[in-house]
Amino acid sequence: MKKTSIFINTSRGALVNQEDLFGALSSGQIAAAGLDVTTPEPLPTDHPLLTLKNCVVLPHIGSATYSTRGVMSKLTANNLLAGLTGSEMPSELKL
């Protein structure tokens, strides 16, 4: 990546080696990073990435759309009902 690159991860935290990312950011190998996902979530408050001014870590807000949160709420309700009735808990919502 160019030194002016900005790395953005909104998919899965495990896709990036966070220690290597810290090294690349602190050495100036890349300019900045924005992380919506980390491993683990949330990062411990003493994690080195949180000390960098060129790294922004968001609280996994990529899924914070009305549509996605609505589907997540329905799945949660269906799992609660299944648990209360002794039924198998669904792992995905059948639309």
From TrEMBL:
Q: Which SUPFAM superfamilies match?
A: NAD(P)-binding Rossmann-fold domains
Keyword hit for Oxidoreductase: yes
Keywords attached to this Swiss-Prot or TrEMBL record, sorted alphabetically, are: Oxidoreductase
D-isomer specific 2-hydroxyacid dehydrogenase NAD-binding domain location is: 1-62
Instruction: Output the Gene Ontology cellular-component terms.
Output: cytosol
Q: Name one Pfam family in it.
A: 2-Hacid_dh_C
One GO MF term on file is: hydroxypyruvate reductase (NADH) activity
Indicate what this protein is called per its UniProt record: Glyoxylate reductase/hydroxypyruvate reductase-like
Q: Which organism is it from?
A: Sinocyclocheilus grahami (Dianchi golden-line fish)
